[in-house]
Amino acid sequence: MLRPQDTATRETKRLDGIWRFTPDAAGVGRSQGWWRAALPDARRMPVPSSFNDILVDPKLHDHVGDVWYQRSFFVPRGWDGQRVVLRFDAATHRARVWVGDALVAEHEGGYTPFEADVTSSVTPGVECRLTVVVNNELTWQSIPPGVVEVLPDGTRRQRQYHDFFNYAGLHRSVWLYATPRARIDDLTVVTDLDEGTGVVRYEVALADAGAVVVHVRLRDAQGTVVASAEGADGALRVPRPELWGPGRGYLYQLAVELFDDSGVIDSYTLPVGIRTVRVEGARFLINGEPFYFRGFGKHEDLNVHGRGHDDAAMVHDFSLLAWIGANSFRTSHYPYAEEVLDHADREGVVVIDETAAVGLNLGVGGGLFLGGPKTTYSEETISAATQLVHRQAIEELIARDKNHPCVVLWSLANEPESHSEHARAYFEPLFEAAREADPSRPVGFVNMMFALPDTCTVTTLADVVMINRYYGWYVEPGDLAAAERGLEAELQAWARTHGKPIIVTEYGADTMSGLNSTDSSLWSEEYQVALLETYHRVFDRTEEVVGEHVWNFADFATRPSFLRVDGNKKGVFTRDRRPKMAAHDLRRRWRDPTSRGPSSA
Ligand code: GCB
User: Fold this and answer.
1) For all residues of the chain together, what is the average pLDDT?
2) What local confidence, expressed as pLDDT, does residue 599 receive?
3) Which residues pair with residue 369 across a beta bridge?
4) Could you identify the atom of ligand 1 that is nearest to the CA of residue 468?
5) Ligand 1 centroid vs 506 CA: distance in angstroms?
6) Which residues are CB-contacts of 299 (< 8 A; sequence separation ≥ 6)?
7) Which of 111, 166, 205, 414 has its CA 20 to 30 A from that of 268?
8) Could you tell me the distance, in angstroms and rounded to a whole number, from the CA of residue 366 to the centre of ligand 1?
9) Nearest CA, atom 8, ligand 1
């Protein structure tokens, strides 16, 4: 799905700002038709943001159910005769949208965009009402899953199986944009190298187009045309290309134009990074060179904003990644804003792109042992209906992010139960769907500690092994010598049994910034440093390990728990992005030119 863009033939207008907002505590808005008039008792709510932490209102913080957003807008008069589209970059976890009285869109899934052609519902130059109901409930049929409990007093409470706060709302931009009717509907680019020559395979999908001609031109960063072609699909060849790579965000621009007898009728420009990604034995290759992932699992999580996208915070996070010497991160545990992937493309930061399928594991709740009586895969819990929604989440993620050179690996889930035959049957079609949607990138999932090299039934479907391990924290807390032995034995078993590259996608320790101790006690900054160093010694002795992603980049909000002190504190930075002691230690390791993997500095 193409991101809105201003070009010679297209125009965009963001509908961000302060909207009217009413939480629907009694759940009556749908039956009372709240979209037909001004919302009752509306407050003011910024878009984009999570609604939870904006107002000082504990009920709203923990609200479960519908919230309503409303504003008015004008379609510019100059857009008369154009196709007008309304687009939501994200509505978490599902939404329905009305323009005036007309229902124009409905979408399931909180982290991928959706849009509606609203041409027939709007009149350029005339004010229009826009109403959105956003619902934040997690159920067995949502990704991520959860259960809504109704307490004796009628209060609804969300039970979830993941370890981060269930922020919700309009988390990303809302757009109005205009395109010509005969238009470029989608673009797919896959790059390759043929004996040193760059190959850019492209495919242009057209809509409502009659007799048109497609022209494509590829420009280098200086604006010089280096290749061009005619036709809706083909391959451009670039002799001696500047490659996209870790630490080097070199981008070409692919300008696509649609012509009819009258001239250019539509145009769109896509940034293109020429690079290859391949798994060979136990090595992960970018541009044919072994790549070693250094970085973090992150969250979209900020004070006040919650999961709402913020450009300033994003650019600052990337600056911290560069400062510490990270070359990569994982979009744990959901697709991030497209701005993040655009920025990673430009900065040469490598991304493992993950769906929101976290918590498909009833034996555990995001590293916390909350096992209940139910089994994970059953008619009542994770079922064929869940699988359908999961499949849609995978397809929408790939449709959105397929053209980003920064994305080198798809992660289909975080820590599902993967040590049963049910798991195999559940995941096999999902791996097939991912490979069909994108044959060009490796695919994997993130394994949790209950599924071992000889009991995991899903790893054989994956191109890489990604594992989260908490030796020295949840297992053998405080005993780093035991942790070192346990980790090494397990990594060797993975290497022996599967012979695939291993990325340790999570390891870390909760750490209170400012808590210091001479004996490295749990929760101290010294213990976090000692634990990370223990893991690094093991990684450096294990050739098959091709990546280390510390959990987490920064402290983040969770639901309340006796295991959480004002959130998860495994950040190497605090929630307001101040370095803990471990940040300086990691910086020494990751910026050391003799350390493993190419430098991102
Ligand atoms: C995990 C989960 C992550 C948790 C982490 C923890 O295994 O993947 O979401 O936050 O453990 O800190 O417990």
Assistant:
1) 96
2) 40
3) none
4) 7
5) 8
6) 164, 307, 332, 333, 552, 553, 554, 556
7) 111
8) 5
9) 366
Confidence band of 600 (pLDDT split at 50, 70, 90)? very low
| Cα 398 from Cα 412, distance rounded (Å) | 11
Structure token pair of residue 175: 């757009």
* Nearest to 67, CA basis, from 50, 84, 80, 88: 50
Classified as helix, coil or strand, 16 is: coil
Q: Is 367 in the pocket of ligand 1 (CB under 6 A)?
A: yes
**Contact assessment for residue 270 and residue 189, using Cβ atoms and an 8 Å cutoff:** yes
Q: Whose CA is nearest to atom 7 of ligand 1?
A: 367
| Residue of minimum CA distance from atom 12 in ligand 1 | 367
Of 503, 551, 555, 562, the residue with max ligand 1 atoms within 8 A of its CB, to mutate for a pocket test, comes to 551
CA distances from 469 to 17, 257, 268, 499, 598 (A): 41, 49, 44, 19, 25
Give residue-wise pLDDT tens across range 357-388. Answer: 999 998 875 445 455 567 999 999 999 999 99
Q: Which two tokens stand for residue 19?
A: 């909207």
Nearest protein Cα to ligand 1, atom 4: 366
Tokens 């001696």 label which residue? 240
CB of 414 shorter than 6 A to ligand 1: yes
Which strand (E) or helix (H) includes residue 388?
helix 384-401
Catalytic residues: 415, 506
